[in-house]
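Changelog-adjacent note: as of this version, every example in the card shows the full chain rather than a window. The one below runs 242 residues end to end.
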Amino acid sequence: MVNIKPCVEEEIQAIYVEALHAMRDRNVPFVLGGAFAVWFYTGVWRHTHDIDVFAEPESVPAAAEALKSAGFEDLGEQAPGDREWIYHAVKGDIIVDVIFKFANRITSVSADWIKRSRPGELLGEDVRFLPPEELVWSKIFTMNKHRCDWPDIMRIFRANCANFDWDHLIKMLGDHWLLLGGLVHVFDWQHPDDHACIPQGVRDELLKRRQDHQPQQGVGNREKLLDPWIHSRPEDKCYWEQ
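Full-length structure tokens:
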């Protein structure tokens, strides 16, 4: 955790705080992810004009109503199918994304994510952030033609060497553990001096799994799990169906 303040303009800070107060006043259970959680765990700040709020699916109506009461407008779907995993609210140029599933629909935010969250402070407000393992999970599938969040993950690993729950992350990944194996190889190439951040026991487990791995039959192409954004846009339909 860091003590460096995020670089956010005062007028934008005020809107973020309004959103946080609105949901807290309605007793909406939520935690913060995205750029703010990366900053919290690593001290690295990325300029953003949105804030990612993670909540259980059943909490979304209350979150939407709370934001509406604070003057936020429903932005609707930015891509077809958005309502299946995210709610967008906007005030001025600031977007509040209430995330309850993920774009690839693999899992939903659960009560355990809220329970395991870490307390911290943002813009003078007491808040809770996604646990580092869930934060990594939320980013490990983002590797596509538009963006790749793996650099964020590697920063999280380096900043949390001593207290990262690798067993929990591997359990969360389930059949998708191969992604972590690939990420470890990239980490070793990019940060050779930080090799010890990934315990040898984790490396041994991933190596054993890789040696025993047999490709799953009938699973099909998983490309959409890494790039659901582009597959939801009709202007790209001809390209992707060739």
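Structural remarks: Residues 164 and 191 are 17 Å apart (CA to CA).
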